[in-house]
Amino acid sequence: MLRWGILSTANIARAAVIPAIQASTNGEVVAVASRDRDRADAFARPLAIPRAYGSYAALLDDPQIDAIYIALPNSLHHAWTLNAVAAGKHVLCEKPLAMSAAQCLEMAAAAEAAGVTLMEAFMYRFHPQITTAQEIVSSGALGDVQHMHAAFTFRLTNPANIRLQAELGGGALMDVGCYCVNALRTFAGREPVEVQAHAVWHANGVDERMAGLLRFDGGLTGQFDCALTLARRETLLAAGTEATLELPRAYLPGAGDTIVQVRKSYSEVSEQVIAGVDEYRLMVEHFADCVRTGQPPRYDAREAACNMAVIEALYRSARAQGQPVAVPAC
Ligand SMILES: NC(=O)c1ccc[n+]([C@@H]2O[C@H](COP(=O)([O-])OP(=O)(O)OC[C@H]3O[C@@H](n4cnc5c(N)ncnc54)[C@H](OP(=O)(O)O)[C@@H]3O)[C@@H](O)[C@H]2O)c1
């Protein structure tokens, strides 16, 4: 069993990742750390976590912990991953892995030098609906796929939320648009060469909404929109010459069944039902397997650097009123 330490009392840790580790076949949660000791205690008790620490450093000093799950605000991912790696811990870090491609590459190099596993916690890609959709695209059933669209939006109402704080790495693209960029790159099977974006900015300086375009070699285009201001929508579409593939719940389908839809025409629609799974559990089990076997994770920190290179280019374009920006090779 991989012994996990949880770095912070984040909502996502409590709601999804800790239950996933506790349900997993190859991991257990042994400790949690908060900046505040009382908060750590209050968090640990109902979740039956044996040890609670009042500082992140104390968690990293615990020799009975193998791996750290980092659920901090985005701007702290880089520093605390480096600290955890320096302490000899394997790290599963929340998305986006860091604030820039350069930071991701530094984290990748540090993990490689220390001989520890580092992975970005993009759980959506462990769901079998994604594998099924990728198989359909690569089978040629859609014909020539020329265009894709990804969307991830929801409505944030709490002004104190970390997603609205520029200094914590907030913003719609950093929070949910990063899924769209990841999905478009994954389904394209290559990196975009150029991007354009238009953002609507919140008074705090973060993008509260963004619409963007990724241009790939060979004429393939990928469009996305992401928002902290709109009703929940999380779709992925691949448009081919013969048919269109759609995932109506591409990123957070929940534990229930989900569908992969292929539409040849309005009357010819096939729907494949994918049985419900816990994508977080599949992610943490894969991570623990990688630690045990020494195999590299299916998606490594260098892949995360490629995602960040696109995100950085999109921000540059959005700040330049939608000017096309070349994506540097990653
Ligand atoms: N994969 C997913 O499905 C998913 C879903 C949601 C979020 N996320 C990612 O998970 C991370 C956390 O998101 P969340 O919504 O769960 O965050 P959250 O509930 O706001 O928790 C963030 C935690 O970070 C700690 N922290 C340290 N410095 C802080 C600061 N200056 N301001 C605020 N908190 C600080 C706090 O813990 P202590 O006070 O205990 O130290 C806090 O509980 C983000 O990177 C986000 O992108 C992923």
| Class based on secondary structure composition and strand pairing | alpha/beta
Q: How far is it from the N-terminal to the C-terminal residue, by CA?
A: 35 Å
Number of strands: 15
In round numbers, the mean pLDDT is 98
**How much strand content do the residues show?**
25-35%
SSE run: EHEHEHEHEHEHEHEEEEEEEHHE
| CATH C-level label of the largest domain | Alpha Beta
Question: What global shape is seen?
Answer: globular
Using the CA coordinates, give the radius of gyration: 20 Å
Q: Helix tally?
A: 9
Full CATH superfamily name of the largest domain: Dihydrodipicolinate Reductase, domain 2
Widest beta sheet: strand line-up: 14-13-12-11-7-10-9-8-15
- Structure ligands: NADP nicotinamide-adenine-dinucleotide phosphate
Task: Estimate nothing, just give the exact number of structural domains.
Answer: 2
The helix content, as a percent range, equals 25-40%
Q: Major sheet: size, sense and barrel closure?
A: 9 strands, mixed
Keywords:
Rossmann fold, 9-stranded mixed β-sheet, 330 residues, alpha/beta, 6-stranded parallel β-sheet, Dihydrodipicolinate Reductase, domain 2, binds NADP nicotinamide-adenine-dinucleotide phosphate
